[in-house]
Specification:
Length: 416
């Protein structure tokens, strides 16, 4: 048992259109079409910049590159449209001329920025950014919904690194990190800050069509003020919420996480996402154990029936997806707990993603159990984040969800 857990621990440390039904089409089909991971990893955000908006887009290259090499090998173009799926000509278009101000690097990620002029009499729009890597011939399209006339504080303020130059487009920072909350006009503003200590629940099953269990009220652990344009250090892992005025419906949310995040490494945390591939009895044993290491050992021994090779492959694949979910889908809670994170962990990369202002539709077309299935995520208003989506649930998902879970338990899911 100890041998299996040591193997498990080492692997975790190393692993780096409204749909009226789920549209499940049952047939034998084994396609391997997938949305490039870059398409989902790429993030964007905008800030009001007077007569313009400034758009920030992150992208990742599968090779180490200097900023000079990126400037030569990558081309970034953008277009502004009045709405998603517009058939009209772009209102604004251009390409990014890279400089020390418009191309930055942060922990292996690259950040391009550019200004888009505000069209007259247009309240919202969508900026499509094409990132083309001429060296690998890969191309990624990112869409960023933008507001030209807004009262939302998050359209004017964003967290940057402690130098105030590198924007932080993810929704979390590491405990002990120093950051700056700032706007592009550099005005100093006082924010009321609330810290919440709360453990959010994992996503409900895709088949849970009944009424949701109401969330408990958030407990305010502490309240204080902070100023923009000054270095801020968050030392306590928690959820923070900043607002200029308590009467505002939307503010700026930020998770402060441990230094290992988006990886999970502690046994009690490693056990939590297993709820998506476990029976209720197994979940109760994992969650309620006073010896989390032993419970985790027993779980994997039982699921893999003692097969070391299956255990090795399944553990690596599962926690690789958990880490990816945390990177891509974290909002006011860890990415693995979100509806998108749940579907990503179990189902993997979608074959197609269709995104509109208020929803995303993920299509899968590569499993032997079906030819096509859609998961529809609807955007919901949330005080902490712009990226809160809820899955449209159907009982019919069970015909594809349970067989896919069985593939996990049988060790038939590979590592990407």
């Amino acid at each position: 048992m100890k041998q299996l857990f040591y193997l498990f621990a080492a692997l975790v440390l190393l692993s780096g259109c409204t749909a009226t039904n789920p549209s499940v089409k049952q047939t034998a089909n084994n396609q391997e079409n997938r949305v490039p991971l870059q398409r989902i990893l790429t993030k964007s955000k905008f800030l009001d910049n007077g007569n313009n908006i400034r758009v920030y887009v992150t992208f990742y290259l599968d090779r180490p590159s200097t900023l000079a090499e990126v400037s030569r090998e990558v081309v970034v173009n953008y277009q502004l449209f009045a709405e998603y799926n517009s058939t009209k000509q772009a209102l604004v278009s251009g390409n990014v001329n890279f400089s020390v101000n418009t191309l930055l690097e942060d922990k292996g990620w690259y950040i391009a920025s550019f200004d888009v002029p505000k069209p007259k009499d247009l309240y919202t729009g969508v900026v499509l950014t094409e990132i083309r890597d001429n060296r690998s011939n890969n191309k990624t399209i990112n869409d960023c919904f933008v507001r030209f006339q807004s009262g939302k504080v998050g359209d004017y303020y964003m967290f940057f690194d402690k130098t105030g130059t590198v924007p932080l487009l993810q929704s979390f920072v590491t405990a002990g990190d120093s950051v700056i909350l700032k706007s592009l006009d550099s005005k100093t503003t006082v924010f009321k800050t609330m810290r919440y200590k709360y453990e959010f629940d994992p996503a409900l099953s895709p088949m849970a069509t009944g009424q949701r269990v109401p969330q408990k009220s958030l407990y305010t652990d502490s309240v204080y003020t902070l100023q923009s344009n000054k270095i801020i250090r968050f030392d306590t892992e928690s959820l923070y919420y900043m607002t200029k005025d308590t009467s505002e419906a939307f503010g700026i949310g930020l998770m402060v996480v441990d230094k290992r995040f988006p990886k999970l490494t502690r046994p009690e945390k490693l056990a939590r996402p297993l709820i998506y591939m476990s029976t209720s009895t197994e979940t109760a044993d994992l969650y309620g154990s006073r010896e989390p290491k032993k419970a985790l050992d027993n779980y994997w021994l039982n699921v893999t029936q003692g097969n070391q090779n299956n255990a090795k492959r399944t553990i690596k694949a599962f926690y690789q997806r958990v880490e990816q979910a945390n990177k891509m889908f974290s909002t006011y809670k860890e990415g693995w707990k979100t509806d998108k994170g749940m579907v990503w962990i179990i189902m993997g990369d979608p074959s197609k993603i269709v995104r509109t202002k208020d929803k995303e539709i993920w299509t899968y077309t590569r499993n032997s159990q079906y030819s096509e299935v859609n998961f529809t995520f609807n955007r919901r208003a949330n005080q902490f984040t712009e990226d809160h989506y809820e899955l449209q649930r159907y009982a019919e998902y069970q015909s594809i969800w349970y067989p896919t879970v069985d593939q996990w338990r049988n060790g038939d899911v590979g590592v990407r």
